[in-house]
UniProtKB/TrEMBL annotation:
<dbReference type="InterPro" id="IPR000014">
    <property type="entry name" value="PAS"/>
</dbReference>
<dbReference type="Pfam" id="PF00672">
    <property type="entry name" value="HAMP"/>
</dbReference>
<dbReference type="InterPro" id="IPR050398">
    <property type="entry name" value="HssS/ArlS-like"/>
</dbReference>
<dbReference type="GO" id="GO:0016020">
    <property type="term" value="C:membrane"/>
</dbReference>
<keyword id="KW-0808">Transferase</keyword>
<feature type="transmembrane region" description="Helical">
    <location>
        <begin position="179"/>
        <end position="201"/>
    </location>
</feature>
<dbReference type="GO" id="GO:0006355">
    <property type="term" value="P:regulation of DNA-templated transcription"/>
</dbReference>
<dbReference type="InterPro" id="IPR035965">
    <property type="entry name" value="PAS-like_dom_sf"/>
</dbReference>
<feature type="domain" description="HAMP">
    <location>
        <begin position="203"/>
        <end position="255"/>
    </location>
</feature>
<dbReference type="InterPro" id="IPR003660">
    <property type="entry name" value="HAMP_dom"/>
</dbReference>
<keyword id="KW-0597">Phosphoprotein</keyword>
<feature type="domain" description="PAS">
    <location>
        <begin position="264"/>
        <end position="315"/>
    </location>
</feature>
<dbReference type="Pfam" id="PF00989">
    <property type="entry name" value="PAS"/>
</dbReference>
<dbReference type="InterPro" id="IPR013767">
    <property type="entry name" value="PAS_fold"/>
</dbReference>
<keyword id="KW-0418">Kinase</keyword>
<protein>
    <recommendedName>
        <fullName>histidine kinase</fullName>
        <ecNumber>2.7.13.3</ecNumber>
    </recommendedName>
</protein>
<keyword id="KW-0812">Transmembrane</keyword>
Length: 335
């Protein structure tokens, strides 16, 4: 049986389920955003950082080459070799982080160019010792264009990862907007459903209670034909059923009492009429409620229409009125 308590628990259980769904959806979307951000940092930022550091190392090596041409061979060679290892190290990191289409071709091309660059600088060092003018020409004709090509390739690698990171950032932004709208929609639907259920629940409770209240008021006014509609099989329906049974019993009791009262009244009237002495019946307000034929004769033919009237309206006898008041006040007959 669907009890009232079970209905309430079911309704609020559904609301709680919707809240859990909203929280789970929010957590899922946040995790997706977190993974997207992590992917941007892992896949693109490392390659951008590698390209920046290779550009820096290549520029330092070019400056070292110029030092060699200016005659500072030992200092130039030391600085050139000191930046060779960092360049190769960052090149290796870039090779290990290939995630974008076209990135492998750029890195392979960069590796070939840098290997050739190292060979040309090594040859330049030997040429500088034997023929400095020829070494300068060799630098301008071969090494400098090769250096610039290496820089352009590093910049190309950096820009490719920049564009990819920007696209990934835009996707993450769209996911964030979608997450916000999804949470708002699900949350709005949940709130709407909770409001609808609350209104339904309030009506479910208030309607039977209002009907019971109206029926109780009508019952208090003496209407014993009132009935409360019975809907369903929960506690409120059981209460309505019991109320209807109570009304039916009160109706039977009321009808039984009326019949008894009428019978008692008829019995009293018969007794009053059969008494040989004059008998006048008054209530606490000294209004005539009954009298027998002998009383009518004694008091000079009082009309029967005097029932319900004050005794002074019918018999303006002050002395008699005084005796009656004294008797009512003391409860004893006057002497």
């Amino acid at each position: 049986m669907w009890t009232f308590r079970r209905k309430i628990l079911l309704g609020y259980g559904a609301g709680l389920f919707l809240i859990i769904v909203v929280l789970a959806g929010a957590m899922t979307l946040l995790l997706r955003l977190g993974r997207a951000s992590e992917s941007i940092l892992r896949e693109n930022y490392q390659s951008i950082l590698a390209a920046e550091n290779m550009i820096d190392a290549a520029e330092r090596q070019d400056s070292a080459t110029l030092l060699i041409l200016l005659g500072y061979e030992q200092q130039g060679v030391s600085e050139f070799r000191g930046n060779e290892a960092p360049f190769l190290q960052w090149l290796g990191r870039a090779k290990d982080n290939i995630t974008i289409p076209g990135e492998k071709e750029i890195i392979d091309n960069l590796e070939v160019k840098y290997t050739l660059y190292l060979k040309e600088v090594s040859d330049l060092l030997f040429l500088q010792r034997t023929d400095p003018p020829a070494a300068v020409n060799r630098y301008h004709e071969v090494i400098l264009p090769l250096f610039r090509s290496i820089l352009e390739t590093c910049i190309k690698l950096r820009e490719l990862n920049h564009e990819t990171m920007y696209a990934a950032s835009m996707r993450a932004g769209k996911q964030a907007v979608q997450a916000v709208f999804s949470i708002l929609i699900i949350g709005g639907v949940s709130v709407l459903l909770v409001i609808v259920f609350s209104l339904f629940l309030s009506r479910l409770i208030s309607r039977p209670v209002s009907e019971l209240k109206e029926a109780a008021l009508r019952l208090a006014q003496g209407s014993y034909d009132v009935q409360v509609p019975v809907r369903g099989s929960d506690e409120l329906a059981l209460l309505a059923t019991q109320f209807n049974l109570m009304v039916e019993k009160l109706k039977q009791f009321h009808e039984m009492n009326i019949d008894r009262i009428i019978a008692e009244k008829r019995k009293s009237e018969a007794i009053i009429s059969s008494v040989d002495d004059g008998l006048l019946v008054l209530d606490e307000n000294l209004r005539i409620t009954n009298l027998n034929p002998e009383a009518t004769k004694i008091f000079g033919g009082i009309p029967e229409g005097c029932l319900g009237k004050h005794i002074l309206e019918v018999m303006p006898e002050k002395k008699l009125f005084h005796f009656i008041r004294t008797t009512l006040a003391s409860g004893q007959a006057p002497r």
